[in-house]
Structures are given as structure tokens and as C-alpha cells.
Design goal:
By secondary structure, the chain is of the alpha/beta class. The protein is built from 15 helices and 13 strands. It has helices at about 50-55, 65-70, 80-90, 90-95, 100-120, 125, 150-165, 190-205, 220-225, 245-255, 270-280, 295-305, 320-330, 350-355, 380-395; strands at about 5-10, 25-35, 40-45, 135-140, 170-175, 210, 235-240, 260-265, 285, 310, 340, 355, 380.
Length: about 400
């Protein structure tokens, strides 16, 4: 089998809010076509226009080639071999960052082709099936006005609703300060505990609560003072309390925090995770399947976690393509107690709700059945692709 074409779709929710901190308002979808009629799809969590440029850029020499250019003629049935060739061929610009994120979208599409060609879901060719259940957690970030009171009430309501729908875990996106401050929210850090306490009371002791503060703080001692006030509420982890490059600060928090520390959504390549792990600077590794370089590299992160007795809880704030790809990874990763799942019925973005037809249905016990469709298990809605493409073209 040979790759014959690579197509990039830049998509945008027409109702996007430029003041929101939510990357599921736009996406880049990569379609890879083959000479046997099988088409694979993938996406990555990166500025969609930048990702398109990374894939479609030409190259003029062997160590700085274009990703799309290199793909033509490759055999897609060996995604790991393709990944290595693409990685080396773009090394002068792509060892980390945007090009590697774009490679992640391509890698997911290659695994999709390989699964479809084998007539199997990707997890069956990716690794060994885990013995226990796959569990999603509901990731909650309401757009509910610009007041703390309205936001807190909406977030608490979403957590209660998630519990009623069968979820056994949810992440509260308390993005009230720092670079990810959501829709202009501005509230004192010592008030965050109010929401955590009220959600814990509402959902009960058997429901897992995670908290994402979106790189809120610049000093680990200050971060610790806030996190310590949450110790009585059985928080599963605190996500990205410090800037992603502050490995020293993360190492201090891991030693001193009463709550496990999680990060990794921005990291590209398993070697970046290795830097944290070698410093004992994380309790929970959070690779994003697209950003880290696709399923090929995400598997390496899970192997690293297994070697160091750490857990993996992937980031997945995107469309149903990322959710489906992450579910494939979860099916073969026993050290993954949960993975991120933005519920379509509460997602603000139409891209999350309408872009794909998928099979992700949560069972009453809060688990997901193993995917059974060939490939990653989703198909694009062509009408949605056309509408969202028009919206993207309208702004650039």
C-alpha cells in the first residue's frame, strides 16, 4: 500500500469566542489517502493554520523536508517506521514544537489506516489489551458569563450533571488567573477552595475530582500554600500549577504537596517527559496524543511511566478524533486510570459535538467499552467539514 495524497482541513466553529481559552474552537484535520482507497484521519491540538503550514511546506534538502511531501509514496502500514523517517527528515525544524505536533496528526491518521487495513480497532495492533476497564473523566469548562459566581455555579452544575450521566470522575477547570484565564475571570486564589468544597459535597466521596489551574502561579511556595488548602477534599491531582519549563519548581511540589502533581499537555516527544521523570518532578504524566507526536510517541510515554511506577492521564481537549485516538491508547495502558473526555453534550464547541460520528458511549458504571470499529473508530461528517472550513477561510 502506498500513500497517494495528503489533505489538510483547517476548521473553525463559527461561534468561536476569541476571549475564551479553549482550543477546541478550531482544529486541523489531516486526511491521508492511499492507492487502495483507504483514508486515515488525524488531528492535533495546535494553531490549525500553523499546523497546515508545517505539513504543506516544501523542502529543498534531505534534513529539512516538508511532512506532506515526504509522505507521498510511503507505506502507511508501518506507522512507527513512517514516524522515524518523518522525524529525521524534518529534524532541522521539527525535533520539538509545532512540526512534531503536526507529525502527531499524521501519525494518528497512519494508525487509522493500519487499523482499517487490518479490519481491527487500532488498540488491537498497538499493544496488549489491559485487564481492567477504560474510564473517561469529564473535563468541565463552562462559558457562563464573566463573574466568579456565575462561573462557579455553572461548573458545579456541570459536575453534578456528569455524575448523573455515569461519570465517576471530573476535572474542574479553575482557570481564574495566569495565561489561561478564562473569559476574563479574576478572583483571589484563596477562593478556589469554595468550588472544590461545594463540588465534593455535591458529588460525594466516591467521585474523583481533579483540578486544572492552567499554569496559574510562578512560585512553587505560593502554589503550595494554595494547594494545601485543598487537602481535605480528596483531589486526585492538580494540573499545571506552574509554568511548563519550571522543572525545579515541579520537583519541589512533588516532594511537598499533599495532592499529586500533573503536567505534560504541552510537551512534544517522550524525551521531554524523561526530563521531568528523571527529576522526580511529576506524579502524573499527561501526554496529548496529537501534541506529543501521535500514538507512536504516546506509547513511549506510557512505557516510561510504567518503568517509573507513575500513572498516565492523557490530555485531550479537542474533537472526537482526539477522544477516539486516546481511547485506543487507553485500551492498552493499564497505568492509565482515566483519560480526558470533553462530553459532547456539554461542550461549548460545535466542532466537538458535530465533526465526527464516533462510538464513545459511557456505560452506567462510568466505563467505556473497548472500541470495536476498524481504525480509530470515527468518520468525518462531510457537512460539518464544509461549514467549518468556510468559517476558517473567512478569517484567514
Amino acid at each position: 500500500m502506498k500513500i497517494t495524497a495528503v489533505r489538510c482541513h483547517v476548521l473553525l466553529d463559527p461561534g468561536y469566542d476569541a476571549d475564551a481559552t479553549s482550543s477546541n474552537q478550531d482544529t486541523i484535520v489531516v486526511e491521508i489517502e492511499t492507492d487502495e482507497g483507504i483514508v486515515g484521519i488525524g488531528e492535533t491540538d495546535l494553531n490549525a493554520w500553523v499546523a497546515k503550514a508545517c505539513i504543506e511546506a516544501p523542502g529543498t534538502h534531505t534534513m529539512d523536508r516538508g511532512l506532506g511531501q515526504m509522505l507521498i509514496g510511503m507505506d502507511p502500514l508501518d506507522p512507527r517506521a513512517c514516524w522515524q523517517e518523518l522525524y529525521v527528515g524534518t529534524a532541522m525544524t521539527g525535533r520539538r514544537g509545532a512540526v512534531l505536533h503536526a507529525l502527531g496528526a499524521i501519525d494518528v491518521a497512519l494508525w487509522d489506516i493500519a487499523g482499517k487495513a487490518a479490519g481491527k480497532p487500532v488498540w488491537q495492533i498497538l499493544g496488549t489489551e489491559r485487564p481492567d476497564a477504560v474510564r473517561p473523566y469529564a473535563s468541565l469548562l463552562p462559558n457562563a458569563g464573566d463573574t466568579w459566581e456565575a462561573f462557579a455555579a455553572a461548573l458545579g452544575g456541570q459536575a453534578i450533571d456528569a455524575a448523573k450521566r455515569g461519570y465517576r470522575a471530573a476535572k474542574l477547570e479553575l482557570l481564574t488567573t495566569g495565561p489561561y484565564r478564562h473569559t476574563g475571570l479574576d478572583v483571589e486564589d484563596d477562593r478556589l477552595v469554595e468550588v472544590i468544597a461545594s463540588v465534593r459535597e455535591a458529588v460525594g466521596a466516591d467521585f474523583e475530582i481533579m483540578v486544572d489551574v492552567g499554569y496559574a502561579w510562578t512560585d512553587w511556595r505560593y502554589a503550595l500554600s494554595i494547594i494545601e488548602s485543598w487537602a481535605d477534599y480528596n483531589v486526585f491531582f492538580v494540573e499545571t500549577p506552574l509554568w511548563t519549563d519550571d522543572i525545579d519548581g515541579y520537583a519541589e511540589l512533588v516532594v511537598n504537596s499533599p495532592i499529586p502533581i500533573a503536567a505534560g499537555e504541552w510537551l512534544s516527544h517522550s524525551r521531554e517527559f524523561q526530563q521531568y521523570v528523571d527529576r522526580n518532578a511529576l506524579d502524573v504524566l499527561q501526554p496529548d496524543v496529537g501534541r506529543v507526536g501521535g500514538l507512536t510517541e504516546a506509547i513511549r510515554v506510557t512505557e516510561l511511566a510504567a518503568q517509573r511506577d507513575l500513572i498516565v492521564v492523557p490530555h485531550g481537549w479537542k474533537t472526537g478524533i482526539t477522544v477516539a485516538a486516546t481511547a485506543q491508547l487507553a485500551a492498552v495502558t493499564p497505568q492509565m486510570p482515566f483519560f480526558e473526555f470533553v462530553p459532547p453534550d456539554v461542550a461549548e464547541s460545535r466542532l466537538r459535538r458535530e465533526l465526527v460520528d464516533d462510538e464513545m458511549t459511557i456505560l452506567p458504571d462510568g466505563t467505556l467499552p473497548r472500541p470495536i470499529r476498524p481504525g480509530i473508530g470515527v468518520e468525518l461528517n462531510p457537512d460539518a467539514v464544509e461549514e467549518f472550513s468556510r468559517a476558517a477561510r473567512a478569517i484567514g
